[in-house]
Amino acid sequence: MQLNLNYKEMPFLPYHQRKDLPAKPGIYYVGNGDYPVSYIGFSHNLRNRHINHHRQSEFAEIANAVIHYRVVTEDLLDRIYNLTENLRRLEKQAINYYQPQLNKKAVNTQHKLSLGGVYVQTHQVATAGYCSHFDAEDGEELAINTSASKISLINKAIANQRPIFLIASGNYDDYVRANYHNFSELIMLKNEKEKIYILISCFIPYGCEVNLSYELSHIVYGGNYKIFIEPYIILNNQPGFKEFKRSYLTVGFTNCEKSPFAQILLNLGGFQ
């Protein structure tokens, strides 16, 4: 997929008019007359992305800020197999060229949470595109592979501003095939018959929509939070994980707040 990424040839809006952005997938730049490209991102829905962007407070501090954008046209959408990967590739291309300063700046950390729902989703390494998470930025959109029957739970997490934890599962060979690059962490479990479970991300959601790239996926927006666990955490040897796995990691997207392991997840994610 090819798009014209020259900001001088892109349509633009003043930042305070961001609600008028098209509700379409594309690449966007945030900046002003002095620094036209201070931040670069991509989205499956440009308008929704900027309802509550994870760097919104920083964008608001840019004097006379504007958003340049380039949408993916309908004819291109009909020919694209993996929209997310194509947008991510274009985003990286633009970042490498413009070197925007805000993309290099760390995202603010999470605040503490009171009691409430704790949501989990397990992604199979071999089928869920796990390797794509390694290249994602903090605050980026995440795909949750779940059926439409779970959308009410996702909306509840959004409405109550409760954390979502994404857990990858697979055996050692699955991680090898998915280009997982920290093999040293997994060597001790290489010959285990049990699957390896890794906590890869956690975030407070603020929006959701159907992902047109995959039939059963939903794009969930990550909000004002650092979403990726660094380094990734192997859960197999965490206390209480075996019971938690049997009860909660076989039912798809679900609320696990009644499990004692929910407190461990909150601690691992920095919410407690």
Automatic annotation (TrEMBL):
InterPro entries: GIY-YIG_endonuc, GIY-YIG_endonuc_sf. Residues 23-104 form the GIY-YIG domain. It comes from the Bacteria. SUPFAM superfamilies: GIY-YIG endonuclease. This is GIY-YIG domain-containing protein.
